Structures are given as structure tokens and as C-alpha cells.
Fold each of these.
Amino acid sequence: MEKIVRLLFGRTAKNSAVLVGANIAYGLLIMLFIILSSRTLGPERFGLVSIALAIFAISFDVLSLGTSQSLVRFVSVYIGKKEPGKALEFAHSIFKLRTAQAIVLIIVSPLVGWVLSEQIYQNSDLFLPITLSVAAGSFLLISDFFILLLQAYEKFGRSATTQLSIAILKLVLLAVGLLTGNVTILSITLAFIVTPLLGLIIGFALAGRIDILLMGKFASSYETGIYSVASRLNTGFILVGSSFASVLTPKISRVIHQKEELQRQILLIAKVVILLIIGIIAVALASTWFIPLIFGPVYQESVLVFQSLSLAAIFFAVSIPANVSLLALGHSKLIGLLSLLQLVIVIVLGWLLIPSMGSYGAALALIITYMISFLFSATYAVKAIFT
């Protein structure tokens, strides 16, 4: 118990509090953005916006596979070895890669926009939002680099400030649209996607999406909107879990050559994850009243979808100790392969389940995906650390 208390109230806990607190605040601000947008647009038009925003996120997710984890892990290791020159050299390599990827995104964005809007979704209204979303993924690639670099150097306060600045700017742009009466699919999309660039400027001064795309293809815009509200709420669980993992990765990376200490830290993390799971269950149960209250009665159908997605979040949470330990051991390629495996599984299952089950098919696809990922990562981590 004393060890758990130290983990909960020591330096790691303080860093976790800063990052988790900032991410909770970020999540609440983004949720406010979603609430205002969804209530103003209605489920059908909000469903189209969700498709564009999912593409924006996936443009980043695909290109950042492996590099995000590697940046935090290796910079932290070099700092722990008192080799700041190597840390900067590695960070510079990642930055050059991200810059090249950003340029490619901007170049191919019109083609991707045409293919997805005209050939896949057969809705010309989506061409400009999707094109801009793909191009804006370049902003996210670069701003994410600086946020992760700050975390690797354990500058969590500055990292949190940069993140919050991005969320606040989203709301400011949305408020301008609401006050001027300019609330359209394009304006809402722009308010969400351009802010990483603006947040990056401030950052310089300070130093589940595939499922939505498949819903847009195989379900109505209305049902996509219903699912998107539940999915956005579920992202809050992922934010908290990811924040916890982000703080722990540099700490665990510094004890990779001390097997007993590494084992002890991983077991302590596993015990803390239990508290996170209890919180997920409590929020899922409370969703029966707060979703209709916040989003309006028209989103009542989102309740059961959100509760289903909460099970996926639990599998994500129990994967945290394994994923952190694998990153600490330098198995970032394995994490990248697992991410790719998740992408393939959710696409295949979504393709099979959504046409017949709708929102619940998308939720089931995500549950199975996270469960398989947990089994793979946990099995490998246990063998690497405890045998």
C-alpha cells in the first residue's frame, strides 16, 4: 500500500496530475465544442462533420505510427544517460521525417478529397472539408512533435499549456461562427482542424476514427451523428489513459536495465489502472442521464452505444502497463505493428458488422480490436519482463 501511495503522490503523480488534468480540461473543452456543434447542426449534418474530422485524425495517426512512441522513449533514455547531444540528434531526425510527411499530406490532399468524397461517400459536399482535413493533418504532425518533445524532457506544464491553447482556439473560432450565423459543415470543420497550426505558434513561444469513417460509408448520416457523440465521449477515457502512459514512459525508460525495479513499477501501474477502470464503469452507468441532458433528447440513442464503447475503453486501460513496458524496453516497432493490426481488424470487422448492426456493429468492432491488442501486448510484455 505504501508503494502505491508513493506512486499516487510522488513526483510521477504530480506530473500525471498536470498532464491528466490538462487532458481532462482539453477533453472537456473539446466536448463543449462537440456539444455546441452537434446541437446546432443536428445528427445528420454533424455526421458529415464527423467524417471530415475522423479523416483529419487518421491522416495524423497513420503517419505518426511508431515515431511518437520512439520520440518520447529514446529522448528520455539519452537524457537519463546524460547524453543530451544524442537526444537532440534523435529528435531532429524525427522532426525532419515529420516535416517531409507534412509536405506529402498537403500535396496529396486534393486527390484524397476527390476519391473519398466522390468515389467512396458519393457526396460532393464532403470534397472541401475532407481535402482541408487531410492537408491540416500536417499541422497536427508538427505540433504533436513539440508536445511530445516537451513530455520527453518532462516539461509537462508547457506541454499542457500548448494543448489547452489549441482547445481554447477551437472554441473561439466556433463562437465566432455562432455569433455571425456562419455555422456550416465547412466552418465547423475549419474551426476544428486549423487550430493545431495556431496552437503550434503559441507552443513555439512556450517551447477510434476509422469506425466513424465506416459508419459514414455503411450507415446514414443520422446514425453516424449518433455514434459520433458516443465516440467523442469515449475519447475522454482514452485521453486519461494516454496521459498516464505518457508520464510513465520516460520514468520507466530510465529503469529498463534494473529488472526488479522495472517489475515493481509495472505491477504498481497495474494496480492504479484498476482505479481507472472503476471510473470508466461509473461514468458509463451515469451516461443514462447526462447524455440526453447535455446533448439533447435527440441523442438518447447514443447512451447504449457509449456504454458499449466503454467496454472497449476498459480493454484499452488494461493494456497500459504492457504498452508502457514495451516502449521502455525499446519495442516501439512492435507497438507500431500492433497499431497497424488494430487498424486492419477494425476495418475488416467494421466492414462486416456495421451494415447489419449499425452503431453497435462499430462498437463491437472496436471492443474486439482492443481486446486482441491487449492479449498480444500483455503476452509479449509478461514474457519480456517476468520470465
Amino acid sequence: MRGSSTQSLFPDLDDTPTARDELNFAEFPIALLSDRPAEGVSELVFKDQITDKSSGRLVERRVKVLGIDPYGLPNSKDEEILLGLISLTKLKTDFTSRELRFTRYELAKHLRWPTDGRSYRRIDEALERWTATTLRFENSWWDAEDKEWKDVLFHVIETAIIGRPHVKGKGGIVTVQWSSVAFKSFQAGYIKNINLQFYQSLDSAAAKRLYRFLDKHFYHRPRLEYDLAEVAFEKVGLSRDYEPWKVKQKLQPAIAELEERGFLEPLNTDERYIKAGGRGRWRIVFVRKSAVPVKAVEAGQGSESPLVAELVSRGLHESQAKKLVAEHAADVVTLQLEAFDWLMKGKSKPRKPASYLFSSIDQEYALPDGFTPKAVLQAQAEEKKRQLADEARKRQDEERAKRLEQQQEAERRGKVDAYLKPLSDAKRKEFEERALAVGPAELVEAYRKAAAMKLSAWAERHRYILFAHVIEAAEAQAQPA
């Protein structure tokens, strides 16, 4: 119950068939597919590119997973434990507290693992790794509260205090404190249900990883199409050393398992893989089976989001609003809200506003002609401001350079005039002939060209430059070594 200050240590966990998955963690792998990394590997890197719906620009996202000795990198079982911990936090505190208290028995029972020493050691090892592992999301962490992509560097679990069963009165209670970054996302409702029993029944780690990623995106549409390499390398975590034919071979068992279990619609090879432009480029297609074994949306999920209130205030029922917020990314909902408000201020108002708003989010309508998102307007204003600042800076630089040039020219003229003044006409002519003979070729050429074109002012300027150079060279040569 939200607002409760205590946590029951032994709730009836068998009545909770669904777990919770944080949507940033479902988007990119944050653990190994295998139990052990290759020798010397202490870092995982995943990246992709997406189109920012507010600006239309291509954005690169990157995730780094940094492990340290002696704990190493998290693996697929550690991810399963992480799902269990998120679920227990929801069940016990309804995300009102960053601190979670539980026993190993309790977590193992929730995960439907054997309640024995091996499972408990496995839980301890996972807590050690998650506490030691650093995650770096570069332009890839969606902050559902602030509604923007962010760069974040954090540990999923900030601290883990592991009580030992043999300590009298302690009962082996484990106290975990989530990082503020992860917990903020939980509270903002950027989580979804995941059928834990179905997830655990999958045999391969690749199938589990693919299930989490696709289950997140099937909320938006029943057919998904991606770059094959991106799915295999950046979403599932297969080795990047594989050629396209090998990628298909390695990915096929996971796809086949999800087809057999009724999550994916079976497709033949020509339907599953589409040749894309460029050598070795392929697209991969996934279609969700109409009768899926996964409960899509929990009633009331995302109810803490302020977007629910925004939708209700525009005529939607609360259940509709909660469904939309649970099933769609916050930036999609926000953008369609902006477009809806813009339409309502114009002449072409929807005849049934609430129905239109629901459908525009649920089906992700194209933005109406003439509408410009606030983010784009802000970006345009910032770009205009930057351009004006650049122009002002450029003018200042040009004026400064012009003053400096005028100053240098005045000094040059003064030096040449002072040198020539005491000379007779014959000596001056002799000096000019010598300057044309020994001066730098480019200066002599510029002077002769200006004189030939009868550009007196320009010729005079080049004449002074040439003379000054010859005088300075002569003075430098006359100085004692």
C-alpha cells in the first residue's frame, strides 16, 4: 500500500505472476549473455541510432557496462535477480522508499528458484556485482519525469547490507538501497509488467533478452522491423565478429523458441529477413502472435505519472489515460498532447476531441500540417540566438582585426618614412631598386601588379609593406651575432 512505512518480510508472493521491468534496462543489454566474459573483458558497449520525434534528427545512443575485479560483469542470471528486486520493491513499498528489506528465501521464492544454499549464494554474488558495476548511459537514459534523454553514470544498487542467518535476531535480512537514478525512473512509472514465469521458462539467455526488448516495443505496434546487426549486437548482445549469415544462425534458436512458445508469429525466411541497401545489410521482422501469453498492461500502471492527469483533464477516462501512459513512451504522449492542444486552438478542431486524442496517441498519428513541437521551436530559438551571438562575435573580431591592421600599417609607414627621410633622392631610388631586387617575390609581385593596374592607393600600401620588410631584414642582418 502506497504510504505504508513498514515492509512485510513474507508477503504472499505466489499471487504475483508478473514482475516489473524498467524500460531503459529492457532497451539495451546491461549484462553478459554467458556466465563468464572472454579473458580480459571488463567492459560492454552497446549503441544504436534513433530519430528524435520532436526534432526529426538522428540521435546516437550508447550504453557502457563497466565491471571491476574480482566481481566481474553481471550475467543473465543477475538480470533475472534484478527483475525480482524491482518486483519486490513494487510489492513491498509501491516505490515509496529507495530501501528494500527482504530475505534470500523470499527472493528465491519470488523467482521460483530452489530455496537452498546454492540459490542464496547466487543472490549474494548478484548483489555484489550490481553494487560494483557502473552503468554509463550516453544520451540513452530516458528520464520519464523530466521527459528528456540524459547522460547518466551510476550503480543500479547503491548499497547492499547482507545479514547472515546465523546472527541471532537478524534472520538473514538483506537491505538494498537503489540508486537515485534507477529509483526516480521507478517512481516516474517508466516500468512495465513482464510475465516472470514465461521469462524464466525460456531456455536461452538470447531468447530472454530478445523477449524483454520486443515485449517493450510491441506495446506500440504488432509488427516491428529493425536492422539485423543492430538487434543482434546492440539489443541481444551477440558477438560483433559474426558475418550476416552467422548472425542469422546464432539468432535463430532464440527466435524459434519465442515462436514455439506463442510469443512470435512464425515467419518463413523471406518474411523474416529483408535485404537492405548496401553489402551485407539486412532487416529483420518480428510479428507478435495475436494470442500472446503475456499480460500487456497492468490496471493502473503509470498512475503516478502527471501525464495521466493531463489526459483526464482533456476528456479521457482515467482507465484510458493510464493505459496510454503505460503502453507508450512519455515523449510520444507529450508530443501528441502538444499537437492536440494546437489543433483545439485552430479552426480545424476534431469533432470528437477525446476520441481523437486517444487514437492519436494509441496509433501514433503523424503530426498535423503546420504544427511545430515546442522542442523544435525552442531549438530554433536557441539556434537563432546562437547565430546572432556568432554574428556579433564575428563583427567584433573583424573590427578588432581591422584596428590592429590599421595600427600595424601606421607603424610600418612611420618606420619607412623615418628611414627614407634623411636619404637623398638618388639614395631613395637606389633603395627602391634594391628592394625590388631582393624583396620576397610575392610582395614584389603584388606591388608591381597594383602599380600596373594604376591602383595608386593599393600600390602605395604594398610599397610600404615591401620597404618595411627589406628594412627589417637589413636591420636584423646588421645586428651582432
Amino acid sequence: MSAFVLCLVLMVVQTVPFSHVEPAREMSMLLSALPGEGQRSSRLLGAGCIAAGVAALALG
């Protein structure tokens, strides 16, 4: 699965600046860590900050 995702990222980077693609990819990894134990509020805050950054990049 990760090789497939890497191929998708490389295809998208050809049309969109890398600075827009990488934060979105990192956000997916952070969201996968949310169901863990302890410090849930910190992880939610981090996910929210990354989502806000991705939105800010998308809006220009």
C-alpha cells in the first residue's frame, strides 16, 4: 500500500507544488495515530494545526 501511495504522491507533485502535497500526506499519518492511548488532546490539537496549514496552503 505504501508503494502505491508513494507513486500517487510522485504523480501529484508533477502538477502541484511539493509544498502543497507533503503537508497533506503528513496529515494522513497524523490522523492514523489519533486512536492511540494517552495525550489525545495533544494529538487532536496537532491534527487541527496541520489541517489548518493544509487549508491555508490550498487557499493560497
